[in-house]
Design a protein that fits this description.
Number of strands: 23
Number of helices: 15
Helix content: 25-40%
Strand content: 15-25%
Oligomer: single chain
Distance between the termini: 97 Å
Shape: globular
């Protein structure tokens, strides 16, 4: 029976989403707006202020005005505020999850997980900023050198449309903890949950101007933030092409950049692996969050003796994945975020059918005649030069290929321009370590899916980005460090010109 395309509307949906500048809501200087649609009906449910250069100027001015007092605040005082932010996020878990699911198409059960993770980001960085000490270097009895860490200034944060609230928290928490003030530009496809931040920050006692939010189209609001001369550092998560553009635009200003970009992560499965556990991990890793995740294991490389069995079982599981309305607790894959993205993913499915063998899914489920729905797709016998093997699809689509030995597994794993994550499944831990060290990526998991420790560095190599965030690495990015040298003994300086 077909499912109605009318989405379950959460209570409290705003009719208009406004900027948050200097502690107050604001419309765009020129009054411009854009439509916000939901991915189930693809119809407008709200408008949002469309920021431009003038709005970014106002936000940066507010952030600069708030910077001296916020930077001077003690780490313990800032940590107390971060903890209150975490409490406020947790108190809104249900509302936040409903907003996120409605706006992005994420299954409601997975959206709830994002809300909890967002709160944990603030708690974690509250702990980090209090516990983090400065380095000191002693040179015998003659000299001591110590490092002074200071906030870097006004930070520009540009965040993606997948799991938007959680990824915003990932950048907001360390920036605030470090003593920076900031301007956040949320993704225009999913601005709804960002509309909860002003209430949260006000309740937690964040001073006006510390956090400013400018909505808008990337080419306008995002570009103005990238170009602004009073924004010395930018943290960006998004596509590789956009990352390249930001690098070019930031060159003249020598801006500090941290960029987490695209991924085409391999999952290497050896014949001696726990196949049930590996299968569970592969299915979850590429199809959870609707497949719209940068670390998705979207290339599955399977040792030839188990290739046929593993591919068959993977296809069977993909066919049974429950695709349905995001608000249904039983849904495992919801609606893709936007009709433009849905068309892009479907185009890759068409391309894949010319390059390899489609063994599962790849079409709209019969019971969902409208909305951005796709039954997870599995392609087998995918050649290494296929576009579906090489290019990031960012949807519930997986490419499977066989390998004969370790050398070929490493070669195939490294055969793309991306290098964000990797996954290895084997009963031989020595081999697991060998493969993990040989795979060109910023992160590798052995016998696990993407279970991340907040203390660890997050980021990629090659076209998957530059820099690292997470733990102390995030504090380092949002800080400037200065080394102070102090002589303790007699100074013996060559007397030139004496």
């Amino acid at each position: 029976m077909p499912v109605p395309s009318t989405p379950a509307r959460p209570d409290g949906l705003p009719e208009h989403i406004r900027h948050w500048i200097g502690g107050a809501f604001a419309d765009s200087v020129g009054g411009a707006v854009f439509d916000v649609i939901d991915p189930v009906s693809n119809s407008r449910y709200a408008t949002a202020s469309a920021g431009g250069a003038a709005d970014v100027d106002k936000a940066v001015e507010a952030a600069r005005a708030a910077f001296p007092a916020w930077a001077a605040l003690g780490n313990r005082e800032r940590a107390t505020i971060l903890t209150r932010i975490a409490d406020a996020v947790e108190a809104r878990e249900d509302k936040l999850a409903e907003f996120e699911s409605f706006d992005s198409g994420l299954p409601i059960t997975q959206a709830r997980g994002q809300a909890r993770r967002a709160a944990e980001n603030f708690r974690y960085f509250a702990d980090v900023i209090v516990a983090l000490g400065d380095e000191a270097f002693r040179v015998g009895d003659q000299q001591i050198n110590y490092v002074v860490r200071t906030p870097a200034g006004v930070a520009g944060l540009i965040t993606p449309w997948n799991t938007p609230f959680m990824l915003e928290s990932w950048k907001l928490a360390p920036a605030i903890a470090s003593g920076c003030t900031l301007v956040l530009k949320p993704a225009e496809w999913t601005p709804l949950s960002a509309n909860l931040w002003p209430e949260i920050f006000t309740e937690a006692g964040v001073p006006a101007g510390v956090v400013n939010i400018v909505h808008g189209i990337g080419e306008e609001a995002g570009q103005a933030l990238v170009d602004h001369p009073d924004v010395p550092l930018l943290s960006f998560t998004g596509s590789t092409d956009t990352g390249r553009h930001i690098m070019r635009c930031s060159a003249d200003g020598l801006k500090e950049l941290s960029m987490e970009l695209g991924g085409k992560s391999p999952v290497v499965v050896f014949a001696d692996a726990d196949l049930d556990a590996a299968l569970d991990s592969v299915v979850f890793g590429v199809f959870s969050l609707n497949g719209e995740r940068c670390t998705a294991g979207s290339r599955v490389l399977v040792e030839r003796p188990i290739y046929e069995e593993f591919t068959r079982r993977l296809a069977e599981r993909a066919e049974k994945v429950k695709v349905g309305p995001p608000s249904d607790p039983a849904t495992e894959v919801g609606a893709l975020v936007h009709p433009e993205h849905y068309a892009r993913v479907m185009n890759y499915v068409e391309i894949g059918q010319r390059e390899a063998k489609l063994v599962a899914g790849g079409a709209r489920p019969d019971h969902l005649p409208e909305g951005n729905y796709l039954q997870p797709a599995v392609f087998s016998d995918v050649p290494r030069d296929a576009r579906i093997f090489q290019e990031e699809i960012f949807g519930p689509v997986v490419a499977v290929a066989a390998f004969d030995d370790e050398a070929e597994a490493i070669e195939l794993a490294n055969a793309t321009r991306y290098g964000l994550a990797g996954y290895v499944w084997t009963g031989d831990l020595k081999r697991g370590h060998r493969i993990a060290h040989a795979v060109a990526s910023g992160m590798v998991w052995i016998n696990s899916h993407n279970v991340r420790d907040l203390r660890t560095p997050f980021g990629g190599v090659k076209d998957s980005g530059l820099g690292r965030e997470g733990g102390a690495h995030s504090i380092d990015f949002f800080s400037e460090t200065k080394i102070v040298h102090v002589m303790l003994g007699e100074v013996h300086t060559p007397r030139f010109g004496a």
